[in-house]
């Protein structure tokens, strides 16, 4: 049976003090993503993501 990798986008907000976001750090991004995820129910999260792409994964000898 084939397996597929389904790619999605999720939007989140990071508040900063610059118009170009040059003061945004990795920690700020991680915190914003985790907050967004924790605030959404399982149903809501499906409404807040966008499908991007899908491709078939080649089978390997591993049992994934």
Structural class: alpha+beta
Strand content: 25-35%
Terminal CA distance? 12 Å
In the residues, how many domains can be counted?
A: 1
* Total DSSP helices: 2
Global mean pLDDT: 92
Largest sheet: 2 strands, antiparallel
Q: How is this structure best described in words?
A:
The protein has 64 residues and is an alpha+beta fold. It has one domain. It is 31% helix and 27% strand. The chain has a two-stranded antiparallel ribbon. It is elongated. The mean pLDDT is 92.
Summarize this structure as a short list of keywords or feature phrases.
two-stranded antiparallel ribbon; 64 residues; 31% helix; alpha+beta
Write a short abstract of this structure:
This protein has one domain (3-57). Helices cover 31% and strands 27% of the residues.
List the SSEs and their pairings.
Blueprint: E1 3-10, H1 26-39, H2 42-47, E2 49-57
Antiparallel strand pairs: 1-2
């Amino acid at each position: 049976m084939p397996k597929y990798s389904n790619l999605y986008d999720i939007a989140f907000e990071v508040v900063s003090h610059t118009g170009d976001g040059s003061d945004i750090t990795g920690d700020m991004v991680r915190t914003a993503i985790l907050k967004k995820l924790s605030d959404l129910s399982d149903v809501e999260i499906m409404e807040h993501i966008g499908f991007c792409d899908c491709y078939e994964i080649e089978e390997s000898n591993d049992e994934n």
